[in-house]
Design goal:
Layout: H1 2-33, E1 56-58, E2 64-66, E3 75-79, H2 84-98, E4 107-112, H3 115-125, E5 130-134, H4 140-145, E6 152-156, E7 162-166
Parallel strand pairs: 3-4, 4-5
Antiparallel strand pairs: 1-2, 3-6, 6-7
Amino acid sequence: MTYVVAALAVTNALTLLNLLLLFGVIRRLREQGDTPPGGLPGPRALPVGAQIEAFTTTDTDGRPLLRNELPHGAVIGFFSPGCTPCEALLPKFVSYAERLPGGRQSALAVVVGTPEEAAGYVDRLSPAARVVVEDVTGGVVKRAFGVTGYPTVFQLDGDGRLLVSDASSVDRLAVPAV
């Protein structure tokens, strides 16, 4: 009989421990539920008015791209394959970029991922914007804009300062003159 009582005591203790751990996991999941769908809360890029540092890279067409070549009003979008908010923003970004007066020269899309992962995004973005594919661990354009979350959209003035820095929308961008 003493073995049965001991076994029940151990089982009850383990059940209580399991219950405490479960409550801890539930609390953590609720905290994560408060995180916005695009990533961690807080700034994901440089603020409006910030000067973008000079950079040189190569687009998917094999042409060099320099920061000072981006015209006034240029729109820059950062996307990551597999990102649900990026998928939702992509058609809006393409539609906006197609209406820009300077054509592809006035829009830059940076796809962060491996070339294989980025291929679908490159195909969809290339008709409307110059496209750069950068590695997840770094990249000169990503570093110049201070991007830490996706999607992120910017608009520059002619001197390389940010006119608009918005985490997930093209709605705040200046309407392109047609």
